[in-house]
Protein: Triosephosphate isomerase
Amino acid sequence: MAMVSTYCPQFSGLRRSCPKLDNSQSQCFVQHISSQFRLSSSRKPCRAVVAMAGSGKFFVGGNWKCNGTKDSITKLVSDLNSAKLESDVDVVVAPPFVYLDLVKASLTDRIEVSAQNSWVGKGGAFTGEISVEQIKDLGCKWVILGHSERRHIIGEDDQFIGKKAAYALSEGLGVIACIGELLEEREAGKTFDVCFQQLKAFADAVPSWDNIVIAYEPVWAIGTGKVATPEQAQEVHVAVRDWLKKNVSEEVASKTRIIYGGSVNGGNCAELAKKEDIDGFLVGGASLKGPEFATIVNSVTAKKVAA
Ligand code: PGA
Structure:
């Protein structure tokens, strides 16, 4: 097996480097081997043709952020409506609040609609906020929470985000729960610590993981054109799945989609999609172009290996 030589170099940018196998590295290796066995032995039959460590369906979200006009959004919806999308992918787009209704009313049912944020509890006297009830009222199924732009620009903290997630879930919305480290945190070797702390805040608040997709989005890769390498992303995704296994349950670790976000585009999605713990993408800039977003959705085909 070529795993010793292919596994260790994956721990290049974070806490571990592997000049030789010491105890902790052999432990990583053992975990890796056991995860390989999990892949080949305990997947449902359909997993046999798809290289995924999790058992969830490929998931691609388009986060339109604070972009667009009625005209550009109408054009984007029309491009998405005519795009040919692989069937075995959950596809979601998150328009700005003010266009949610327009998009929901004109977009094909093949694609679900998400909000980009939601209020922490029931709606009421909260000027400028949008409630989960209102998001549901428009027929939206998802909300993005914990996005780095809300953490680092607006100042939302882990506990507040956890509460928002719990409330949205309690009302039946799915949550795209974002986590990810800043460049200086990565450089200080704190990537796992930061991601685990953000995950723990979600885990402490939510009663169930049934309706949560985790988006790992390294902040240094968002909107910068500096995509994480497939190895860098895979390394964190494996760690996140292991964290879920140890701190929530093996079932949740297997079922929860862990998607990658940060400068994903039509050119780099296939290589990323091939990584077995990358269960899809959260796409910003490239989701504003219908054909390119369709290419990213269809990168699920890169995941499929010869049966
Ligand atoms: P990006 O954004 O694809 O433009 O880097 C991703 C995101 O913020 O979700």
In short: DSSP finds 14 helices and eight strands in the chain. The two ends are 20 Å apart (CA to CA). The chain has one domain: 58-119+127-306. The beta strands are 58-63, 89-94, 112-115, 142-145, 174-179, 212-216, 258-261, 280-283.
